[in-house]
Amino acid sequence: MLVTSLTSDSFGLPKFYRDLLIEMLGQLHRLVDAHLRRVAMLQTVPPPNGANRSPLADWDVRSSVRLVPTRHLPPVLEGLPFSEHLVSVVGHPDVARRGDEVKYIVLGKRLHSYNRFTSNLELRAIVPACTDLGLGQVPFSIAEDMALEALKIAVDETNHARCAEQMTSDLTRVSRVRPGVLREPAFLSALNAAQQHPDRKWRSMYLQSFACVSETLITGILSKVPQDEAVNPEIRAIIADHARDEAMHHTYFSNLMRVIWSQLSGTEKDIFGPMLAKWIVTFLSPDRLTEADWLVGGGFDYADATRVVNETYEALDVSALLRSSSRPTIIQLKKIGIFDHSPTLDALGAAGLI
Ligand SMILES: [Fe+2]
Ligand SMILES: [Fe+2]
């Protein structure tokens, strides 16, 4: 439109200059158009996963921290605060009998717990692991590009923690469902214990192996809450932002696991491999104390809450749930060739993961 309108003689320029100006504007228009189409494509199409292509190569135009302004929950919250299909205790008859208000409180507390779990995971485990990778302070070699990209992940994870804490603040304000007891997650106690190892090399390996496991798992929350139309749209959008970033991280940490494994000696593999199985179980096992807290928040006394949680899990096949939740990581271990290592295979089998 702009170029077309300049074909008139309205500028009073000699023909040569006018044609040159039109040509330059045409080129500029084509460049801008091509750039905008490329940005639109990068924002909607998954990146190719070629062996030489970094999963974070397009981070500037794909990451939530670069693309999405802070989202807030509205003053009136439509829908549920969390997906009831992912909170087994709300299906227990004693909870269902108490009606929708108790269900809403339990789901709200579930969201608060998820948010604090996210912040602990990101800030206390993944950001420290990425910092060590970014500064090259790890007991294995990684390419410079891979080190620099760990710092992009550190930025993402800090933003995820910020969004989670903002969501908890907003939810408390608009729904009056308070966070209540926010217990330290089991993975953090186990990680802190591992960080007491006298050998610095193994302190680092424990942290990196935990990061590889937790970042290659794709939790049901990230994959399912955004799809559940019964959940509040803003909450779904915040979790969907996080899920898109984690898809990039999944590929990065799958690659990192391959890099680490290829450099380990036989003796080191005997420690590192079984450790992966341990982290999967620690990370995915249900936290029954926290679930009882949600019910206490909904008006149950503590003894009843504990009974309801225990009865809920007795009715479930927890091993089958662990197996299905751990699939994304198990698939990567198999691809890397870790299944060829007997002590690791035995540890995965003993944990009921394969
Ligand atoms: Fe994250
Ligand atoms: Fe991540």
Summarize this entry quickly.
This protein is mainly alpha-helical. Helix content is 69%, strand content 0%. Helix 6 runs antiparallel to helix 7 and helix 13 packs across helix 14.
Can you characterise this structure?
The chain has 17 helices and no strands. The protein is flat. It is mostly helical and 354 residues long. The chain has helices spanning 2-5, 15-44, 59-62, 64-67, 93-96, 100-134, 144-175, 186-194, 200-216, 220-224, 233-263, 266-284, 288-297, 302-314, 318-325, 327-336, 342-350. It has one domain (74-350): Ribonucleotide Reductase, subunit A (Orthogonal Bundle), CATH 1.10.620.20. One fe (ii) ion (FE2) binds at residues 126, 157, 215, 246, 249.
Radius of gyration: 25 Å
DSSP E strands, number: 0
CATH topology: Ribonucleotide Reductase, subunit A
**Helix and strand sequence:** HHHHHHHHHHHHHHHHH
What is the mean predicted local confidence, pLDDT?
Answer: 89
Number of continuous helical runs: 17
Instruction: Determine the strand fraction and express it as a percent band.
Output: under 5%
First and last CA, distance: 62 Å
Please give the CATH class. Answer: Mainly Alpha
The main sheet comes to: none
Q: How helix-rich are the residues, as a percent range?
A: 55-70%
The name of the CATH superfamily reads: Ribonucleotide Reductase, subunit A
Which architecture does the CATH hierarchy give at level 2?
Orthogonal Bundle
* Uncertain regions spanning at least 5 consecutive residues: 1-10, 32-51
**Strand-pairing-aware structural class:** mainly alpha
**Coarse shape:** flat
Are any ligands bound, and if so which? fe (ii) ion
How many distinct domains?
1
